[in-house]
Description:
Structural class: mainly alpha
Shape: globular
Largest sheet: 4 strands, mixed
Number of helices: 29
Strand content: under 5%
Strand order of the largest sheet: 6-3-2-7
Distance between the termini: 42 Å
Amino acid sequence: MDEEALLKQFAAQFAHGPDDADDTDAAAAAQGADSTANQVADDADQSPATFDTQQFLNGLDAIFDRHTAATEAGPYLEQAMVDAENAGDEAGLLTVLNETMGFHRSQGRHKENQWIVQRALELAARMGLTTGTSEAWAITLINCATSMRAAKQYDQAEDLYHQAQSVCRHSLAPTDRRLAALHNNLSMLYSETNRPDKAELELREALRIIEASSVNPDADIDVSSSHTNLALTLLTEHKLEDAHWHAAKALEIYRTGHLEHSAHYASALAGFAQVCFAERRYADAVTGYRHALAVIEECYGKDTDYWRITADNLRQAEEAAAQAGATVDNAGVAGDAGALPQSGSRLPNSPAQGKTGANAASSPSTVSVSTGSAGAAEAVSACPVSGLKLARAFWTQMGKPMIAAKYPQYTGRIAAGLVGHGSECYGFDDAYSQDHDFGPRFCLWLTDEDYAAIGEQLEADYEALPRKFSVDAQGRVTFEAHARSDASGAFPSAGAGSPVTPRAQGANRRDGVFRIGDFFESITGYHTAPAQTAPHEWLMLQESTLAAATNGEVFADPTGLFSKTRQGFKNMPDDVRLALISKRLGMIAQAGQYNLPRSLKRGDGAAAWLSIHEFVQATASLVFLVNVPMVVGYMPYYKWQFAALRKLSGSMFALLPNVGEQLETVMRLSSAACYGGAGFGEGGKGAAPAIEKINDIVEQIAVDIVKELKREHLTTSGETFLEWQRPYVEDHIASDDPVLKSL
Length: 743
């Protein structure tokens, strides 16, 4: 069947709101509409007319492009249904029904959509899709579920979403954006049924998938839409600061990509306005809603739920602004969002949300943090924010304005962020991490040409940036614009001072100005990722090395070159991933299922303990590989291995989610099993109970791994001694390169 058209329409639709608009010229639209409509004019005694699905989609896109959907899309879709039926094109008809569901949702025509949903499901069953795992079936399920959710038929919607999840696990790649669509839509159902915690998890998963699949997340509309959705959910959880950041980030993406004229810009504007309203920034809320309403009216018209809801929100914001005596800037309402704050802008000191009693109106307290040299004595306390948050604030408040002022011609060419070595790059830093290599810092990444032109001077300007900052009670960071007393690069933490260690100086420095290729070479030995056809090079790279090259956050990347290079290291060839899974299966079997019990029987505690180490390392690595590094990242070096494993296991969609906890139990019991529990309070019981428990856990992990291999269709065998699973996994390796196969 022709699934391509279904895939195209859904990819365009899933994250943007109530329309399916793409860039198509009006002439093409008219031609497409006329051509489709004329198909039914064939004589009855002629062969059935054909239905051109792509032509239908082009015509529909153009209707949205010229903003006439309110009057033209309905008749166009109705005629297309007739055309597809007359042509006997079931796949084409299913495409039309999917598009019709989306249009009816945007128009609030939920009652009419009920029979469209029923018809689509019946058609899919007649086509034999419901017993398979085709992409067309997954897409239809998602569209039907979303239509039922919009009609507030939540039980039916949730059931359809769960069916779609089951199909998508088999039919879509882990980084397929339609998976993100499913998470986005399911999050809306959870939000509407008062389950914001689940909604947040769904949205974070969606954002992770979209960013992982994007060449340039800083100019990607789908990434922006996910930030907006996440901001609104965080707002319902009273996580105001996080909501502000995500809403502002959504607007920044539109500006970075020069996408302000997109119809979907309205969603980002309205989302930011809603956050501003919650922050009692009523004037900014009014401005945002007015911008959003202008875009909605132009693109969708006034006779939509989208327009009515936004208009009502605007009315409430105007009333609140009037009561507060706030002055609203009415300039540029038709589309220029210049009056809205930029991403990362500071929130005003408004009364804390959700507080009562004597503390409700108190001013936020601040914690001052000194960042001079280690010998510059100044009373400070531990920095209460993470290194990544501090880095982003340092970039937003100090770095970005400096570049705009001193290097205006390069503002569209310099990438910024924090990636590489250091606990904060993994997001696992805490107060104990601040005794070395901690402080305000970020990286600036340039092309070779730009580095030759401005690299040295830009480095000097970066080193001269003021680094004294304070953190208020809500965790907001404020930098003080004063000259730095030295340029040593030493950024002490609160209290004790945070010297830059030798491993973070000179050629090994972790912040400042870099050539893009040199930065990645310093971590991996490669300027760019090895070729997809060079498995031997990929196999020489340790997972921890790849983790360091792909962790952290990118704050800005106007050209997308840094993100593209970084993405290359994320994109481990699947043949290599399968080869590593096979190797890990072999080590789990050898160390955990074979050598560990034999060593324990011999009473060789040292050999048993080392066997446990190898078993734990291989199993933890396998969990990351099964979950696909492109989506969840690579397993980091030993210090943060379990922190990362716990974080991964806590995800609602993690595969093998219980393994991390099981491994920690094995490690906890290892003293008793290997040495009778000396020093661990378990010696009195002897080794036998611990040995039995460890052996049981090892076998349970093996059983769980086999179940997952079967679910992924990587094996048909139920054998739980994992060495025998390796040939089944390796059968899925497409390459004939012997380096990928076990001996």
